[in-house]
Amino acid sequence: MTALFIVVAVAAVWASVAPRFGIFRAALTGAAVFAILALATVRHARNEPHAFKIGPDGISVWIRTGILLAQGRIVGCSQWSDCLLMLSLEGEGSRLHRVLIAADMLEPDLFRELAVFARRSAHV
Length: 124
Fold this sequence. Notes:
alpha+beta, PH-domain like, 2 domains, 5-stranded antiparallel beta sheet, 3 helices, 5 strands
């Protein structure tokens, strides 16, 4: 789906720029849009949460490469139906980290368990 979005975005840029500024500028602008969206896709895939560790002092979120993405106490939680969960973690120095967790990233029971834990932790 992301590749399809990139193709549609580049085609829209081409269709908008080509009639006004010519084919050469449309090609440069389309290439720039393609590069920006492709890099953003790679960065997003690399930084997507992969593992969660729930401890007595909060939660830790790790990415696929084993690097700690965020760690801290849950201070806020928003849930959109059974689809998406957003956690606000208070890290060291009162720094806030926001982590988005899609329901299809976890098994349904684990997603519900994490959502309940997050709601309880956010209200304490």
